[in-house]
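FIELD: query
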Amino acid sequence: MNPPIQRFRRLRKSVAIRQLLAEHSVDAQKLIQPLFAIEGVGLENEISAMPGQFRRSVDRLVDHCKGVADAGIGAVLLFGVPAKKDAAASAAYDPGGVVQRAVAAIKESTPDLLIITDVCLCSYTDHGHCGVRRDGQVENDATVELLARTAVSHARAGADIVAPSDMMDGRVAAIRAELDRAGFAGVAILSYAVKYASAFYGPFREAADSTPQDGDRRGYQMDPANVREAVRVAAAAEMEGADMIMVKPALPYLDVVRRVRESSSLPLAAYQVSGEYAMIEAAARNGWLNREAAIDESLLAIRRAGADMIITYYATEIARRR
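FIELD: result
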């Protein structure tokens, strides 16, 4: 007797049954919207390499965040672009800095919106590297001290979560210790634990004005060839006190997202970075793919790989479409 034909199509024949049986979904509550704060008043400048994304002054950012929250997005990731830079990245930990002022203003106007702040120095240094440099090299421990100082300044302004993205060794432990010492034991740390030296950051560097003046970041960001290392650095971040961890970029590293998911029980974020966004936008504008379908499929792939949360420039758009 021949075995019966398996009729898989029975469970694909309508929208209702497909939605009922979908194994993964992209929910607005799982998305985080990145935003850029700049100095000035009344400014909303489109980023040429990222059509549809803007750098906003604090007043405009406050208004925009109300719309983000109204759309159903619960969290934003805030980057700052200072007016002045120096070798010590002093604007990063200035209590009156652009991120600190933006955090305070957003918290006052939209108190239930979670604010995650990027903790790094690359946008604040005059050389564009992610830390203090000596003899052409980024000094790990000296940089970590400034990162911890920056994280505390963000917490004082009202940040709910701080997210170190610098890739210095030991920075999670140092930030945790300083936050606790300053009375901010309730502020969580989302560690960019697994951040690769990627070609997909190009558009972001225009947005954050963070292109290195010389050299590259391969001496401190991860080698794209390595997967086992990702498991080790994620474990180190967890041991140092990270509350959540991140893989960045997302789509070119779905195998890494899966490996980290399998090795850690911490909440896991993946960042659909500027280059991923720009590729979809460019292809869609040329008529080479269906824009909305490509966005949805790319985000679903990231969730399917194991990410609990996705940082994406499409967050608010997706929420409004749901």
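FIELD: remark
The longest strand covers residues 31-38.
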